[in-house]
Amino acid sequence: MSERSNEPVSAAWVTIARVARPPRPSALSNALGFGWRAVLKFKHVPEQFFDIVMSPVMFTLLFTFVFGGAVAGSASDYLQYLLPGILVQTVVFNSVYSGMGLSTDLDKGLFDRFRSLPIWPLAPFAGLMVGDVLRHLIAGTLILAIGLVLGYRPENGVPGVVAGFALLVAIGFGFGWIFIVLGLVIRTPTTVMTMGFTVLFPLVFASNIMVYPTTMPAWLQAFVAVNPISLTTTALRGLMGGGATLGEVALALIAPAVLTLLLAPLTLWLYLRR
Amino acid sequence: MPPGGLTGRVIRANDTAIMTDTIAVTSLPAGVASAGAPAVFARGLTKRFGAVTAIDRVDLEVPHGTIFAILGPNGAGKTTLMRMLATLARPDAGAATVMGHDLLTAPGEVRGCIAMTGQFASLDEDLTGRENLVLLARLWGFRGRAAWARADDLLAAFDLADAARRQVRTYSGGMRRRLDIAASLVVTPGLLFLDEPTTGLDPKARQGVWRMIRGLASSGVTILLTTQYLEEADQLAARIAVIDHGRKIAEGTSRELKAATGSGFLHVTLADTGQLEAARGQLARLLGAPVQHSPEGGALSGPVASAVEANRVLGALTAAGIEIAGFSMGSPSLEEVFFALTGNAEAAPEEGGR
Ligand SMILES: Nc1ncnc2c1ncn2[C@@H]1O[C@H](COP(=O)(O)OP(=O)(O)O)[C@@H](O)[C@H]1O
Ligand SMILES: [Mg+2]
User: What's the Rg (C-alpha) of chain B?
Assistant: First the structure.
C-alpha cells in the first residue's frame, strides 16, 4: 500500500464500509423499486403531463369543431366518433416515452449501474412499464374528462370505460416494446422519438380514427381495415359506446400480444448482450 | 439464451454470494473470505470492436486491499478493460477471475461483490440525491426505513446531506461524482471500480475525491481505478499499470516505473522560448533519445546516463547558441516515464480530456 494511506480511518468510513448486506430481495421487490422510480419521475417532472396531453387536446378541439360538421354532420356527432380514436392515438404516441427514457438512461450510463447489480434482469423494464401504464391512465382520464365536458357520452357507462381503458393499456404496452427495442439500440433520445413518429404517423392517420374509411381509395381502405390502430379504435368505440363484439376485441388484442411475444425476448437479449 | 434459464441462474448465483458474505461481513468486505486468489487475476484479456482491438491480450493481477491504477491516455482502452472486469462487456479472448469468481461462468457472483462507478455519472438526474441512493438501497434489499437510513448515512459521509433533497440536475460536477461513488457503496463492495474518478473536476473537488478514495481503501476496500492523470496514479496507487492502444506497456510501483526509465533526467529551462524548436532538435541529437517539452514550451527534458554526459550536453547546447536560463538533474516524473514508454507526448495530457 502507498505511503499515504496510513491516515487514520475515520469513524464515518468504518460505518460506511462495514455494512451488513440484507438478504437478496425478490424479483417483485426489484420491479417495485423501479416502479417507485417511475412514480418519482411524475412527481419531479410534472411538465411531462403537458407533453402527454396537450397535442391530443388540440386534436380533439380542432377536429371536433373544424371538421366535425363536414365529416359527421355535426360537431357533437363527430365527437362521439372521434373521442375513442383520440384515446388510441394518445396512448400510441405516448408509448414512445419509455423508449426515449431508456435511451437517455443508457446514454447516461445509468443502465450500466443497473446491469452491474445482482438484480432480476427484467426489473428495470418492469419499472418502465409501470411508468407507461400510469402515463396511459393519466392521459386517458384527462382526455376522457375533456370529452365529457364537450359532450361525449360513453353509452356503456363505467364498465365500458373500465374495459376500454384496459384495452388502451394493452395496446400501449404492446407498442411500448417497439420503442424499448429502439431505445436499446439507438443512443440518442430524440432519434428514438423521430423514428417513433415516422412509424406511427402513417399508422395513426391511415386509420379510422378521424374519418370514415368509405371515402378513401380502395387500396387505402384495404390497409385501414387491417391496421391494428383501426382494429383497436373499432373495439374501443364498441366497448365504450356500445356494440363491441368479442371478435372485435380479440382482433384488437392480436397486435399487442404478437408485439410482446416477439419483442420482450428480443429486449432481454439486447439488454444482456455484452 | 432463454429468459427463464438466465433468471434462474442469476438467482442461484446470488444466494451463494450472500451466504459467504454473512460470514465475512463483520470483519472483511464481501468476497475476501475466498482468499488466496488476488482481487483480479486476468490472463490474455482481449476485446475487439470490429477492426479496432480495444484491449489486446492484457494480463492483470490486483492484490487485495490495495489501490491499483490503470494509467493511459484517451482511447487507450481503460473503460473497455474495466467494463469487462465488471461483467458489462464480454471478452473476445482470455480469462479472468474477479474476487475469486470466474468472469465468464459466474458473472452473478462477480456482481455480488463488486461495484462500479463509470466514467460518466450514472445517476437519475430527475430524482433527488437521496432518492437515487434509496432506489439502489431497495434494489440491494434494504427495506423501508433501512433503505432511507442507509441513504442518509452515505449522504452524510460524502458531505451531501445539505443537498440530499435537491434534484441531481442541480448538482455541481464534484457533487455528482461524490454521489456517484456513494451509489457504489450502498453495499460495501469487496472491489470497487472507479473509471476516471476525477476527470473534469476542479483541483479542490479532486482533492475531495482523493481523500474519499484513500478513506475507503484504508477501511479495506480494494480499488481499481483508471486515470489519465499521472499525478493521480502517483498520489493514490500502490501499483500502476500503463496501457496504450489496448496493450499493457508497463507495470509496477511508481518508483519502479521511474527507475525503469533510466537513471536520470536532465531538465533544461530556456531563456528564449523562441529557440524551442532549435533547442529540441539539438538536445535530441546530443542525447540520442526523444526529448519532451513542457506545455508552455519553456523547458525541455530527456534522459542522461550521468552528470558527465549532462555537462557535455549543456556545453554543446551553449556552443550551438542556445541560451540556457537554468538546468537540473533528477529522477523522471511520471509524465516523463509515460513519454519514454509511449514515445508520444500528446498521448499524456496532464489536463483536459473529457
Ligand atoms: N462500444 C464501442 N464500439 C466501438 N468501438 C469502441 C467501443 N467502445 C470503445 N471503443 C473503442 O475502443 C478503444 C478504447 O476505448 P475506451 O476503452 O473507451 O478507452 P479509454 O477509456 O481509455 O478512453 C477506442 O478506440 C474506442 O473508440
Ligand atoms: Mg474511458
Answer: 24
Grade residue A274 by pLDDT with cuts at 50, 70 and 90. Answer: low
* Count of the separate structural domains present in chain B: 2
ipTM value: 0.83
| B133 and B49 both lie in a single domain | yes
pLDDT at B261 over 80: no
At B277-292, the pLDDT tens digits run 888 888 888 888 878 8
For residue A133, the distance in angstroms to the closest alpha carbon of chain B comes to 20
**pTM (whole model) above 0.80:** no
3-state secondary structure A91-144: HHHHCHHHHHHHHHHHHHCHHHHHHCCCCCCCHHHHHHHHHHHHHHHHHHHHHH
The Cα–Cα gap between B58 and B40 comes to: 12
The residue segments making up the domain with residue B209 are 3-251
Assess whether B218 and B93 both reside in one domain: yes
Q: Are residues B90 and B112 part of one domain?
A: yes
Asked if B320 and B271 sit in the same domain, the reply is yes
Q: Chains A and B: how many Cβ contacts under 8 Å?
A: 179
pLDDT confidence of residue B47: 96
| Residue B219 and residue B302 in one domain | no
Q: Give B 184-203 residues with CB within 8 A of chain A.
A: 185, 187-188
